[in-house]
Structure formats: structure tokens, C-alpha cells
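Issue: ligand-bound run for 2-phosphoglycolic acid - logging full I/O for the record.

Environment: standard queue, default settings, no custom constraints.

Inputs:
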Amino acid sequence: MSITKRRRVIAGNWKMFKTQAETRAFFSAFLPLVSGVRRCDIVIAPPFTAIVAATEAARGSKVGIGAQDVFWEKEGAFTGEIAPPMLVEAGCRYVIIGHSERRQFFGETEQAVAKKTKAALSAGLTPIVCVGELLEHREAGRTEEICETQFLGGPGALTPEEFSRILVAYEPVWAIGTGKTATPEIAATVHRFLRKCAEKKFSTEQARAMRILYGGSVKPDNIQGLMAQEELDGALVGGASLDAKSFASVVNGCESAQ
Ligand code: PGA
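Outputs:
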């Protein structure tokens, strides 16, 4: 299957790190380091409280701001939740949905992922929908089964039109924050498998157009090897996105790998 050219995306997931002041400091150091980037999109997802500081600091640059989660209702008595239009008003263009930490620690289900994704899309946000297996799944040979279930329950529950507007992130849970990156080949194999799932559910054309980011211990020293795989359409970066210099070298590594 020949691969059509897909634009790459490097997204930083700050998790529960950085105050507003730290966010502003990050952007003043980071933006000059990525001013020459043309070929890949850059996204940063700060915690909710730093989103406005980030959108203000990123104004006029090519960096898109994202949130790390969202609720599916537009408003209502849902203490602690944030609605898609609120994210849009705060300047977000992206939102991460179904991250493994949300699935593991906050009981996020496939149904919740699908509802959040649909709601985010109808507000005009670009969801980054995460899937990925645990170490025990991989060791038991269940990687494909788990990824297929998560794919079908989340992205697979969308209409073809909705599906064409999302990004998917493959994040093997055993590689997140552990320093154990999946080899470029392991990642590419799962990406190919996800493309097959998309082909079955939607169409060959949609499967080819689907952008899949790899996530899990992506660093400046492994980005080039990962991006050498045509199957990988970018990266979702945790730890290495917190430091301006290291995130800039991940972005520049992606830019020069094309
Ligand atoms: P990591 O996190 O890069 O620190 O492994 C990736 C993620 O959780 O998105």
C-alpha cells in the first residue's frame, strides 16, 4: 500500500506540570528555537490553568495549543469538568482524549472517549485520540486485540467525516515515562495494524490519510530514528516537552527527518 504524504505533528503533553509563569518562560525560550520549522505542526498541551497564558504567549507563532482532556456536555452541573466551547474560547485548537493515564487512574472508558471526541469535534477542536497496550498485554501477545478494541470503541465509533478530522496517537503504556521507547519497527508495526483497522471500518483512502503519532519516551536522541519510519506521522511527547531546548530539538529532529 503506497503511503500518501501526511503532514507530521509534534505534540507536547505537559501533564500536571507548569504554572502560568513557567509557561510564559517556556514560550520565550522555545519560540525562537523553532522559528524555522515549516514542515511539521507543533502543539503544546498545558494544564487547564495555563492554557490562556500559553495561547497568549503563542500568539503570532505557528504553535497550536491543546488541552489534556475535555467533557462531552456543553455546560451543566458537572463539577470539575470543562466543556469543549470553553476550551475553544481559551484559545485551544486541539485536545488530547483517552490518554492512558486517564484510562488507568480516572476510569476513562471507550464510550467516554468516543463521546468526548464527538463533542470536541463539534466544537471545532482537533482531538488527539490515544490508544495503546499495557506491558502485560504485549507480553501475552494481546497488543493487536487491545489496540483494535480501543480503536473501534473510540475513533471507530465516529462517522467517516468526523474520523477524517482526528489525530490518533499510539502510545504503548510500557513506554510512557519509563525511558523504554518502542523501537521504530515495533511502533511502525502497530501503526500499520491501526491503519488496517481503519481500512476495515472506513475506507482505504481514509486509512491512508489517518495521521498516527507515536508516543512513549520520545527524546531528542531517538526522534530521527522514529521519524525515519514513513508510518509515523509525528510524536506525542511527555517528559521531553517540558524543557524548551529538548522539545525544540525533538521538533527540529522531526523537521529534518522528512
Ligand atoms: P513520555 O510521555 O514522553 O514522558 O513517555 C508520553 C505521553 O504520555 O504522552
